[in-house]
Amino acid sequence: MLIAIVNFKLPKPISLQEATAAFEQTAPRYLALSGLVRKHYFVTETGDRAGGIYLWKTKADAEACYSGEWRDMVTRKYGSPPEVVYVQSPVLVDNLQGRIERS
Question: Mean pLDDT of all residues in the chain?
């Protein structure tokens, strides 16, 4: 599995409530998205940065999502272009299932 950390600087800080409302508008587009296992939206405590932490089946799936159209949508909605960082997660601790997994 591949993790993509997407973040962007906001033009002005937003509250958790404002972030939640904005994220709820875009969340439906990620349901049943090919290759996406899970997405966590986030906003920093100071409200100056936001983004998502995505778990993908493959890098090709992630790159298919992060198209020019997607980047344009994020830039228009949040006021700055997104930065995408890919990381590998070789070990996962799952306290909900009570197990440790290797990728």
Answer: 95
